[in-house]
Amino acid sequence: MNQLTAKICLLGEFSVGKTSLIRRFVEGIFDERYLSTLGVKISRHSLKLNHIDINLIIWDTTGGERFNQIVQNYYRGAAGALLVCDLTRPDTLPVLSEYAEAFHRASPHTPLVIAANKADLTEQRRIADDDIAAVATNLSADWLCTSARTGAGVNEAFQVLGRQIVQQKGRV
């Protein structure tokens, strides 16, 4: 089996669910308590895609740091990013373009996937699929609706990003 190690970053505004998505993916759990990330937290998780074992090094950033020059060091060397918005907060979607631009300054031409999180909050949802698709098209990114609470779409989001990283590395 081929092995690949890939650093990925989760980017987005405060409280969109970046840490919760990582905890659901890595540990299989969801915690209702809000735990704000300070600085950056690094997790590891393996992902098997066909004949390739991808060792993901997942960088969870604070959020709201798209204008901070220090985070450019966090982004450097990344193989891809999961851009996270909160489906209940419309202001969290358009800023993903700014995160993508900042990320690509440090890690050019790397794949991006949008995780439209909190899909379980159907009554509070304020972002339409068409709006997500428009941002995704503009960023040449795939997108999925996810729920860290229920787990819906979480593994798939990381798998889509993993497949794109494998394709970019020429391992397919």
Please summarize what this structure is.
This protein has helices spanning 18-27, 71-75, 96-106, 129-139, 154-168; strands at residues 2-11, 40-49, 52-61, 80-86, 112-117, 142-145. It is of the alpha/beta class and 172 residues long. The chain is globular.
Domain unit count: 1
How do the strands line up in the largest sheet? 2-3-1-4-5-6
From the alpha-carbon coordinates, what is the Rg to the nearest angstrom?
15 Å
CATH fold name, please?
Answer: Rossmann fold
CATH top level is Alpha Beta
Which outline best applies? Answer: globular
Main beta sheet: 6 strands, mixed
Report the uncertain regions. Answer: none
Protein model, in words:
With 172 residues, this protein is of the alpha/beta class. The chain has a single domain (2-168), classed as 3-Layer(aba) Sandwich (Rossmann fold). The protein contains 5 helices and 6 strands. The chain has helices at 18-27, 71-75, 96-106, 129-139, 154-168, and strands at residues 2-11, 40-49, 52-61, 80-86, 112-117, 142-145. β2 and β3 form a beta hairpin. The mean pLDDT is 91.
Task: Give a topology summary.
Blueprint: E1 2-11, H1 18-27, E2 40-49, E3 52-61, H2 71-75, E4 80-86, H3 96-106, E5 112-117, H4 129-139, E6 142-145, H5 154-168
Keywords:
Rossmann fold; single chain; globular; 5 helices; 172 residues; 30% helix; alpha/beta; six-stranded mixed beta sheet
